[in-house]
Every structure is written in C-alpha cells, then in structure tokens.
Specification:
By secondary structure, this protein is of the alpha+beta class. 35% of the residues lie in helices and 28% in strands. It has helices at 15-27, 58-66, 70-73, 111-124, 169-173, 235-243, 246-257, 305-323, 333-360, 366-381, 383-393; strands at residues 7-11, 33-38, 53-57, 78-80, 82-87, 93-97, 106-110, 128-131, 135-139, 146-149, 154-156, 159-162, 178-181, 186-194, 201-207, 210-217, 226-233, 264-267, 271-274, 277-280, 284-285, 288-290, 296-297. The strands form 5 sheets. Strands 5, 6, 14, 15, 16, 17, 18 and 19 form an 8-stranded mixed β-sheet that branches. The longest helix has 28 residues, at 333-360. The two termini are 38 Å apart. 43% of the residues are buried.
Length: 397
C-alpha cells in the first residue's frame, strides 16, 4: 500500500530531526509529504550565558553549506582555529590545527539559534509541524507503521524516522534493544566569560577524572571572550561542583583549566548529566529508521555527536532519493539495510575513538599515566599523527 505522495513522519524535533525535515522537504518538495512531531519546540529565547552549544566539524559545515543552511548560520557561528590539548599537573601537550589550509577546524553554534534556524526552514519548506503532543506508541505490524499521539490521533506513514532521544520509547515499541555502557564520568555544562584574548582557540584539558573542554562561542554585548564548558568528572565530584557557589565554582574551574583562557569573570547556569554511552543494536525495521540520539549517544569529548547525525542525514537523503524512484518506496527492508550498514560502521568507528579518548587519561596506574603523557607529547612533535587526529576532528572519514 502506497499513499499518493509518500509520507515521511519524523518523530523528534531536536537538531537531527529538524535538519532532516528541512532538507528533505526542500529537496523533495513535490514528491514527499513530511510531518514533524515534537512535544515542545524551543522559542530560542535564553539568557546569553545560559545556552548550550554544538560543535560543527568542517565536514559538517561543508554539508550545511551544500544544503543551503550555512549562509544563515555563519554570522552566529564562532570559528575554532585550533585546539590546544593538555594535561593537568602532567607533562605533555599538543596544538592541533589545519596545517594545509587557512580554514578553521570547526565552528560552534549555540543550540537555540541553530534550532530556530532549522525550524524556520522547515516551516518555509512546507513541513507539517505537530507541536504539543507526545508520541505514545508505534505499531509496525501492519502494511504501514501507525503512530499514536497522546491526544488519540493516529498517523500512518511510508517511512517513520525515530529521533526522540536516547531513551526512545518508540525504539522499544519496535523491540530494538541497545548496548549501554554505564556512566563512569558525569558532565557539568556551563558557559563562562573571561578577560582573556580571543584567538579562536578551543581547549581540551585532561584531568585524572576526565576531559575538560572549553569551546569558544560568539561574544555577548560585553565583547569579552565566552566559552561553552563541558567538565567531565566522577559522580561525587560532579555533585560537589554542582553544589558550589558561583564564586567557588569559578575559582575551582580556573585552577583546573589554568590561565590560558584568561581570568574567568562570569558564568551562567550549570547543568549536569551522566555520560553513559547508548548504542542501538539495530537502526532499521520495516519502514522505520533510527536517527540522532535514538541511534547513538556518544561521549562529548570530541564533540562528535551531532556531526555523526549530520552524516546519517546525508545517507538518509540518498536513501530517500533512490526509494522515490521505485514503485513501492521504503517497502523493501533489504534496501533500508544498506543505510544501516553504512551508518553502523561510522557509528562504531566514532564511538570507539571517543570512548578511548575519554578513558585514556582516567587511569590511576602510574605506568599508564606516564605512557599517556608521552603519547600526548608525541602527537605534538610528529606531524603525521597530529594531522591524522586533526583530520578525524574535522569529520574526514
């Protein structure tokens, strides 16, 4: 059974779901009907020091430019010219940058601005946006998947893309299980303002409990450098950091990062969460595909989560293009499996790299500790290794 115009149903209005909806609607305007379902979409209004941010690799930026999104985002994006990697209270450091071209290694965009931009594109492209209702059940036993909303409505589609988060209930409805690595590190996220020099440098400092990342974000009205900070630590340390006063938290953060970023003078609200790794054992079922955190939730150490989703969106667009040329679009599970094979290989490579990197310096053994410091020094003095790591960070596969 095929509808007159095949219908794509996207459940989840996060960044991955919005990007797929906007681009697919623009690319397949008259050939595909698209509906996006999200319980609550952000209005983009947040205090300047309270927003979260997303790192975009150069490969992701190139794709966004190819799809026509970058011109609107570029003015609000902060370039990462280089990444300084170091260890707290240990020897060894490295400076990663593009040694061939003068283009930045990546960019940072605040999430509310990115989400608002993608939502505007969705609406302009004719995406049907259903907001205010949660999807409560997905049934895929009939010819077409059937989605039930909490108000009782039922929607069917030729293809359902599940992008409702790491704890996806719809993924469970399909009987898809996950591999879960329990959290050994816990994140504290906060934005801060400094009196340092703004030269487009991101900082990754490894402590005995996990990495501490400072990503430059666009200036506020004060014109002082600002950073999105992700501080990874053990559970007891995270709880203590979240309980500190702003003054005491800034003081400890300053001691941990050092003075490369300048004096920390102001901060926004803190947020915290466990850094578990969740990977779906399957990505497709009949007429259903997983996307975004529903498919993979990775450690934020190298900022690869959304970049991985952007590559999945690219693969999905290729799949949709080929399926629309068939007599029964999305009807053959064997064709959907080609998407799964390509995406799973990318997921495994990225998750392995980020997991090794997040755990590398979180080792109490003195021999491991010494070897890891030496390895970091080797990165800085051996150009081939340095370039390889930089290429991975820029999204090159």
């Amino acid at each position: 059974i095929v509808t007159e115009r095949p219908r794509l149903l996207i459940v989840g209005g996060g960044l991955a779901g919005l990007l797929l909806a906007a681009r697919a609607s623009e690319q397949f305007r008259d050939r595909l009907s698209i509906t996006l379902i999200e319980r609550e979409l952000s209005d983009g209004a947040q205090a300047s020091l309270d927003t979260r941010a997303t790192a975009l690799s150069r490969d992701s930026k190139d794709l966004l430019a190819l799809w026509g999104f970058w011109s609107e985002l570029s003015g609000a994006a902060k370039a990462i010219e280089r990444i300084h990697v170091s260890r707290r209270s240990r020897f060894g450091s490295a400076l990663l940058e593009d040694e061939v071209s003068a283009e930045p290694m990546g960019w940072v965009v605040e999430n509310p601005l990115l989400q608002a931009s993608l939502l505007r594109r969705c609406i302009a492209a004719g995406v049907e946006v259903v907001e205010g209702y949660r999807a409560v059940k997905l049934t895929a036993a009939s010819d077409l998947p059937l989605l039930q909303l909490e108000d009782g409505r039922e929607l069917s589609a030729d293809l359902v893309v599940i992008a409702d988060g790491a704890e996806s209930s719809l993924r469970s409805d399909l009987g898809i299980t996950v591999q879960r690595r329990a959290a050994t590190q816990f994140a504290v996220a906060v934005n801060c303002e400094t009196e340092g020099v703004d030269n487009g440098t991101a900082f990754e400092r490894f402590t005995d409990e996990g990495p501490l990342a400072f990503l430059p974000i666009p200036h506020s009205d004060s014109n002082k450098p600002r950073y999105n900070v992700i501080w990874c630590a053990h559970e007891a340390t995270q709880a203590r950091l979240l309980a500190l006063s702003d003054e005491d938290f800034l003081r400890e953060l300053q001691i941990t990062i050092g003075w490369r970023v300048g004096k920390l003078v102001k901060m926004g609200r803190r947020a915290g969460w466990p850094l578990s790794v969740v990977v779906s054992r399957e990505l497709v079922r009949a007429r259903c595909v997983l996307l975004g955190n529903s498919a993979h939730t990775v450690h934020p150490v190298a900022g690869q989560g959304f970049n991985l989703s952007i590559r999945d969106v690219k693969r999905l667009l290729t799949l949709i293009e080929s399926e629309l040329a068939t007599n029964v679009p999305f009807g053959a599970l064997s064709r959907l499996m080609a998407f799964e094979r390509a995406s799973s290989a990318d997921h495994e490579q990225t998750i392995l790299a980020t997991t090794i990197l997040s755990d590398l310096f979180d080792q109490p053994h003195p021999i491991v500790d010494t070897v890891s410091s030496a390895a970091l020094s080797a990165v800085d003095i051996m150009p081939p290794i340095r370039r390889g790591i930089a290429e991975f960070g820029m999204g090159r596969r």
